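anyone seen this seq b4? input:
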Amino acid sequence: MTSLKTIILDFDGVVIESNALKTQTFEKIFGRFPEYSAEMLRFHAANVSLSRFKKFDHLLELLGRKHDQPLREDIAADFSQRMIEGMVTVPLVTGALSFLQTITAHLPIYLASVTPETELRTILDQRKLAKWFTGIYGCPPWTKPAAIADVLKRENLTASDALLIGDSAGDQSAAMLTGVSFLARNSGLQFEEPYPTCFPDLDALSDYIQTTLL
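predicted toks r here
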């Protein structure tokens, strides 16, 4: 990285400690189909960064109801409502608010998540976090690589000017695909080789960024 001009944050496990809530919500949704519940939870664990809709599509295939759009919409709505309700009380990652307050004084911060954008904005409004982000990207309609590319376009930057902070191999892969630098927050999820530099929380990340990259 020759310079740092913008930061893109993942949401779950980076800003807010919501990974456990998400897994619990999948357990409840998949529990509606007990014959496939264990298999779907294994699929979720092996594909943490995959869009929830891809997971629902996999479930529909197992059920032999691949084209059952009403069921897909019902499952998605149930999942979304449970997540919105649960996110009200989920704690922020240690140092998250201080990170946002401090780093936004130096450069713009964007948010890119696999959470659907409408749901993501609702949660951010509930938690009074939206004001800290120059732009907010959810899936749908964005994939994480597409969101990163759009941030670079909006800011008129090259990949070497940007940093993605994530907590999963999916985030790591998005950084590699787009060429931006990557730092990791350790939320308990796995990464791939070459393993990224990893920090326990956003206090540690803030200190590193301020002393090394700004």
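The chain has nine helices and six strands. The CA atoms of residues 112 and 182 lie 14 Å apart. kinda curious what u guys think
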